[in-house]
Fold:
Amino acid sequence: MGRPPADTTEQRIKRLESLFSVLLLTSGDGGDDEEVWFFLRRLFQRYRDHERDDHDFEYLVDRLMHQRRRSQPESLLYQFEGLESKVRSLQAKVNTLQVETHSLLAIQALGLDAGQVRSTRFIPVRAYIDETPEGAIDAISRAIDEVLTAFDFSVADEFPAIKGSWFKKWFGKTKDVLSQPEVIERLEKIERAVELKAIDKPQAEIDEKQAGAISKLIKSLDKVPNAAVQAGSVLVVKLTTAKGPVIQARTLSQDEMLQLENNQLLLQDPAEVLGRLSAACSNNRKNPSLRA
Structure:
């Protein structure tokens, strides 16, 4: 068999064009796509044998373009659109906060009893767990969100957790306008639901959605030895004793809530928090000058 005919100038130019295209597409690439290099070698082998295959070349270019798109960072336009969406969301929150703040200021300016006027109400929400087994933090966070939703609250703000054990704070707010007694009544309903669910007793006043949310909250504490969860005036405590786990729920008195607001780290001692709150309030009643 004789030697293959020499390449024409046109064929050499085509090979150079192909090589230049590949070099441009792989600029900055680590060169670790074995399939791309296989097709590149086969493509130039066919060029050498004068068997130009446009399908191979098109596949190679498509593959390289796909690889390049995956490796490129987000476009500036996409980043700008994401930032614009966040700004709009933040502006909506600011507008809502302005309305709520001005409503409260108007009530105060008119000398009205703020407890009796129906308005958006905010409650502190806090959670502490002494250990953080895998999945526990996410489960508890979701469960708290579901409990708030089930009882017609929503998360207004949340703050970074304190790591080590785990201590996190939120602010919840009512979805509708309520007086202070109505808020307390709603929170007491949460307390009652926790108590009944802990002893697995049905209750007509608790609907299916609320019962399901409370079940998830209790279930989320399964892997955690000791925990304390506060939602407004309601305090839920889980303790692991020699006889097994115990879950308690209690509506705090005004004095106890004041003590807890001034000493929030009490929640980080679930075994003692209820007793220490009661003792502090008892001391304050005996010695008013010690009131925090």
Remarks:
- The chain has a mean pLDDT of 80.
- Residues 76-109 form the longest helix (34 residues).
- Residues 9-71 form one domain.
